[in-house]
Amino acid sequence: MTSPAAFIPFNKPAVVGRELEYVQEAITGKAGIAGNGYFVRQCEQWFTERIGSHAALLTGSCTHALEIAALLLDLQPGDEIIMPSYTFVTTANAFVLHGGTPVFVDIHADTMNIDERLIEDAITERTRAIVVMHYGGVSCRMGRIMELAEKHHLVVIEDAAQAMLSRFRDRPLGSFGQMATFSFHETKNYTSGEGGVLLLNDPAYQSRAEILREKGTNRNQFFRGEVDKYTWVDIGGSYLPSEIIAAFLYGQLEQAQSINNERLSIWNTYNEALAPLQARGDLRQPIIPENCEHNAHMYYFLTETPEARTELLSFLKAQGVSAVFHYVPLHTSPMGKSLGNNAGALPVTEDLSERIVRLPLYCGLSQGEQERVCRAVTEFYTGAKQITPVSSGKMVSNA
Question: Tens digits of per-residue pLDDT, 124-143?
């Protein structure tokens, strides 16, 4: 009797390089395991060199990085921040926590990114910033967004949590706005379990950002010899990660390109195998606009109806495949409604959020497991019993 195949999880973090060696080095090193040590500095240098930012500040999470960005805006009651509703809660919560009011804008049907054509109508005299989120590692239309920000004297903050190594017009995401943030949560392409980084592309923000990260003290200036003792000089928080987190992350960053290549290979396998289903009208595959180079953060598709999604997710679970939906739009959430938002106001966001399906994608997902995922999706729609690899590396249905 054949034993049942192992369940394929949606995500599985992987050790891909020297992460454990570096963690051991951090623990046994003489400098201690508190933050702002060797591995924190190595990670920050990696970002300034790779992205080209003026400065990079490693944080305990992307949420922490967004909170520092919010504090740097010095928000006053009633100040507004334009952003998409289809994003993770902390994109909005970081600014609400520090006095801002989110103004939600609908998304593009192709990329599920903020629709830049709607931004200008959302700008008022209280607007302070535009926060963009590069969904699935695919760039927002940054050229037009930066033009609007310059015209209206607004700050642009890139929530690039999903966009490590993605590019727009051959320029790294995270390098467009005055500030940008990345996430190293377990579900991200590069992980330390939790973690984040704030990129500063405008040098004017660096000094205060360092103080905010260090609990409101000028400790960084003290270690650089700029002051003879450090003290409390501003508001701030405990936003610095430990050396253990940074050590693990640095092991991942050293393998960034190989991680990116493996994820892209899996993404392409899914995309090629499921193309016949799009041709039949069963689903809609992801759309990558011209001038966008994505990082295979996720592979998603859209079902024809919400009911079809519910049935598909149940079918895949029964086949031993964990596929999931994604965000509940923020404007429809209890907190979003309490801020004056109404369901029905963002029709594209509400429609697509009810039809999205995300497939397992992580380093170490074997060829056989990829085939199982594709076979299960195809069988749901067509009754096909197998998908056979062919010499080109593509997979074809034997329906």
Answer: 999 999 999 999 999 999 99
